[in-house]
């Protein structure tokens, strides 16, 4: 064989070629177009333009002749979104009247016993006339809607609410007749997504409001689904399904597609929802952990709040890691997830006779009690992370005919059972790692499966190691009610402290978010995997995506009972009536640790909707209060204008404080410092002012404090608030005097105002820094 000699190039030639390659790469990156959201200072429009649209177009054309606006925004921001190169975006920043050129980002989805669990089985008894809730419209910004779902039955509902301006947007798979008096509006927004990823493949997903994913149908029917008798998933959770506000109307805004949710589309959906006239906005998505003036959802939520629309968002599924929250702006109601008292037990019986409890909603052929060979995935895998049963990782010759133990994490839980099945396995034990603790999440697996907690999983793995021929069997046991303790904080639920503003406690509260039954799309099976061809009308899934619409629906109930209340008043009612202890006096557990949860985990506590309808007192917040908050966190006038669209200058001679925001909870930062000669420092004293509004009958409220540590002295003045009239306001101050503690120390307390009938509670968190 003849081998040709390599030609050796001179060093200068090599360097020249490398430099040319890098230059070409740089030019390529410059030419690659991205989506940008352009925030304009509308008040700065030159007099030479007749309207702001003409001005927007002129500024854009000054940097690009070919660029066309994707969306024009008026409600959420003043501005537009457009596809530009980085160079063009840089030039646009220099144009007069431009507040911010913001690169678009991708957001991700945070993914029927609950009415009974929440005490809403007879909720009509607590509400005003039955027609009032039907006037409330919940806008759901998500993956769209499956209009044929039985939960959108409009039987018994009257004409559309007054002031509704929305419509049923038509697409190839969606007709104007797809909407009715329950699903009163449906729109889709894909301009940003298609600019980023190319045209939507309509053979793979619907370019219409139709939900091909299931997430949007699940969240919207959780919030406001009509009553459906005989609902279940493969016989699990059988019973009557209904949303939180079953008489409320639903408007769907599809902004999420197979590749995710673009901020420009989310902003367009929120823009249109505000214009259409929704009363509640529900967003079970997240992805931005940015300052508020760069957070698309926070900016859109401020616009909605200023129009009297309550915005409820999921806290995220980043738990149990601390500081894992998203959607933390103080004008957003941030919702974490807890469990209910319902479980779907599945049992693993080992060859040594030991029986361990897990969970599953598998519905196929069982193992009929037969003991089968048991293996740990790590020992039968061809990859370094084979314990996770990722796609293609298992060795069929070592798996065939066996039950495989897979660890939870990385890939979808149901996909692991599909991997075991494809490799020839006949069953799976899904074992939690320390990140998930004892949390049991049930899935519609493809083979007999039991998801077990970390303790049981470790015991099964030890059995495999110690036994020469380990064996096991798996059996499902249907639906179990009355599980205690409940609720417990879900391990996946994102936790505080608030990573943007630690002085504002987040999440605000928790609601059911584990193993929730609600409506589903007819496009995909219950796992959502392409290989899943099973058709279901209802599905059981988990996530803060599920807890968010619970609160959205409950907020609609409060809005129906008190239509004059502001978004802050509604949130206050939900927070101050939430509970953080069981009836036996013990704090709600955190399933990730098996110990008591803290306000960083559960916020004000678990929502109690019946009490929220009559809270007694509320902490109200105005738009001006939020402006003062932005001054307190040292935002410039231009930053404030990006969020609020207002010309607002923080007064130089005024002292602004985050502690002055009339929030229903307290997050108190305390300084750790050494005194002279290394001794303890003088006490740190901070003062908070709060104002309560009477929304009940005349009453006298007295304050009580419970706390964990004696390191902080708490003084409330006055200790008694006497309300004589409806909507009367009373102000009180809380002075916290604390001795120095080790940096990183946290402690908790609880403040309550009570008139003997109502309890108006606020969590308190102390953090020494």
Automatic annotation (TrEMBL):
Keywords: Glycoprotein, Hydrolase, Protease, Secreted, Serine protease, Signal. Residues 661-765 form the Subtilisin-like protease fibronectin type-III domain. Residues 36-110 form the Inhibitor I9 domain. Residues 373-460 form the PA domain. GO terms for molecular function: serine-type endopeptidase activity. Belongs to the peptidase S8 family. This is Subtilisin-like protease SBT1.7. It comes from Sesamum indicum (Oriental sesame).
């Amino acid at each position: 064989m003849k081998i040709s000699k390599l030609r050796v190039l001179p060093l200068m030639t090599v360097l020249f070629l490398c430099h040319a390659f890098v230059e070409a790469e740089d030019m390529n990156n410059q030419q690659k177009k991205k989506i940008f959201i352009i925030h304009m200072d509308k008040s700065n429009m030159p007099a030479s333009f007749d309207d702001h649209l003409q001005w927007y177009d002129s500024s854009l054309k000054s940097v690009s002749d070919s660029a066309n606006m994707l969306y024009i925004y008026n409600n959420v921001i003043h501005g537009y979104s457009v596809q530009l190169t980085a160079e063009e975006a840089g030039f646009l920043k220099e144009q007069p009247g431009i507040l911010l050129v913001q690169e678009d980002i991708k957001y991700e989805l945070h993914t029927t016993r609950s009415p009974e669990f929440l005490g809403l089985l007879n909720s009509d008894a607590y509400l005003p006339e039955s027609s009032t809730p039907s006037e409330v419209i919940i806008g759901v910004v998500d993956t769209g809607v499956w209009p044929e779902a039985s939960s959108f039955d409009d039987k018994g509902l009257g004409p559309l609410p007054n002031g509704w301006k929305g419509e049923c947007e038509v697409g190839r798979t969606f007709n104007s007749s797809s909407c009715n008096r329950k699903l009163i509006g449906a729109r889709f927004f894909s301009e940003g997504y298609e600019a980023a990823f190319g045209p939507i493949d309509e053979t793979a997903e619907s370019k219409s409001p139709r939900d091909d994913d299931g997430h949007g149908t699940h969240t919207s029917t959780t919030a406001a689904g009509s009553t459906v008798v005989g609902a279940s998933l493969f016989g699990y959770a059988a019973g009557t399904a209904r949303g939180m506000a079953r008489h409320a109307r639903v408007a769907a805004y599809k902004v999420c597609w197979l590749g995710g949710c673009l901020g420009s589309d989310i902003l367009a959906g929120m823009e249109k929802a505000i214009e259409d006239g929704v009363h509640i906005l529900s967003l079970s998505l997240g992805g931005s952990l940015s300052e508020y003036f760069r957070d698309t959802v926070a900016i859109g939520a401020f616009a909605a709040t200023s129009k009297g629309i309550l915005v409820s968002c999921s806290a995220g599924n980043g738990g149990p890691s601390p500081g894992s929250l998203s959607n933390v702006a103080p004008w957003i109601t941030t919702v974490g997830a807890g469990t209910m008292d319902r479980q779907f037990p599945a049992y693993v019986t080992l060859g040594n006779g030991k029986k361990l409890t897990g969970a599953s909603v598998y519905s196929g052929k069982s193992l009929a009690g037969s003991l089968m060979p048991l293996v740990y995935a790590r020992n039968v895998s061809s990859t370094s992370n084979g314990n996770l049963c990722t796609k293609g990782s298992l060795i069929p010759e070592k798996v065939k005919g066996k039950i495989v133990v897979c660890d939870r994490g990385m890939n979808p839980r149901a996909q692991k059972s599909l991997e075991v099945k494809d490799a020839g396995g006949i069953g799976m034990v899904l074992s939690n790692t320390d990140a998930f603790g004892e949390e049991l999440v049930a899935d519609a697996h493809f083979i007999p499966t039991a998801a077990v907690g970390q303790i049981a999983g470790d015991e099964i793995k030890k059995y495999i190691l110690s036994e020469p021929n380990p064996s096991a069997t798996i059996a499902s046991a249907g639906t179990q009610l009355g599980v205690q303790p409940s609720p417990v904080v879900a391990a996946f639920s994102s936790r505080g402290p608030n990573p943007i503003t630690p002085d504002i406690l987040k999440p605000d509260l928790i609601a059911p978010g584990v193993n929730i039954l609600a409506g589903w799309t007819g496009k995909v099976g219950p796992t959502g995997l392409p290989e899943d061809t099973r058709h279901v009308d209802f599905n059981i899934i988990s996530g803060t995506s599920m807890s968010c619409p619970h609160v959205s629906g409950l907020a609609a109930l409060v809005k129906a009972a008190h239509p004059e209340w502001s978004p802050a008043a509604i949130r206050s009612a939900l927070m101050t009536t939430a509970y953080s202890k069981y009836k036996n006096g013990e704090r709600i557990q955190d399933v990730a640790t098996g110990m008591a949860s803290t306000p960083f985990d559960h916020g004000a506590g678990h929502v109690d909707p019946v009490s929220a309808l009559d809270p007694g007192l509320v902490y109200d917040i105005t738009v001006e209060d939020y402006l003062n908050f932005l001054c307190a966190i040292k935002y410039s006038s231009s930053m404030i204008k990006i969020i609020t669209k207002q010309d607002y200058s923080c007064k130089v001679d005024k002292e602004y404080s985050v502690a002055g925001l009339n929030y229903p909870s307290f997050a108190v930062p305390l300084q750790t410092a050494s005194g002279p000669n290394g001794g303890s420092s003088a006490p740190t004293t901070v003062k908070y002012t709060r104002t309560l509004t009477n929304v009940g009958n005349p009453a006298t409220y007295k304050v009580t404090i419970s706390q964990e540590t004696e390191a902080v002295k708490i003084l409330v003045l006055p200790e008694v608030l006497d309300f004589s009239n409806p909507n009367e306001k009373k102000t009180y101050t809380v002075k916290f005097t604390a001795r120095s503690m080790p940096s990183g120390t946290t402690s908790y307390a609880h403040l309550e105002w009570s008139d003997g009938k109502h309890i108006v509670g606020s969590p308190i968190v102390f953090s020494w820094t």
